[in-house]
Design brief:
The chain has about 100 residues and is mostly helical. It has one domain. It is about 55% helix and about 0% strand.
């Protein structure tokens, strides 16, 4: 059975974008990358699949990097775009661009 977690987060975000950030694989990759490099939050990979924990982790990201002036929708869009740019869907090949961050 297909997991509809990402779809459900998109559906909720469509109805209340300021309260419901969207989970997807790009956001997952970015949050794990910055956890591993800057330790902005202490979470297990599986925590990103628990929506309440995912939202808390995104808030940790916002606070750690001093982005409190941005709402969750803006943070979500930024993290998604970052993931799309630096973790493109290229069948297992990782981008070397992140080495320059």
């Amino acid at each position: 059975m297909k997991n509809f977690y990402s779809f459900a987060s998109k559906y909720c975000s469509h109805h209340n974008p300021l309260e419901y950030p969207i989970y997807d694989s790009y956001v997952d990759e970015v949050l794990r990358y910055f956890r591993n490099n800057d330790e902005f939050s202490d979470f297990q990979d599986g925590d990103l699949k628990d929506y309440a924990k995912f939202k808390s982790i995104l808030n940790d990201f916002r606070t750690f990097y001093g982005l409190d002036q941005y709402n969750l929708k803006q943070i979500d869009q930024y993290v998604w775009q970052l993931g799309k740019d630096y973790f493109p869907k290229n069948y297992g090949k990782k981008s070397s661009i992140l080495k320059n961050l």
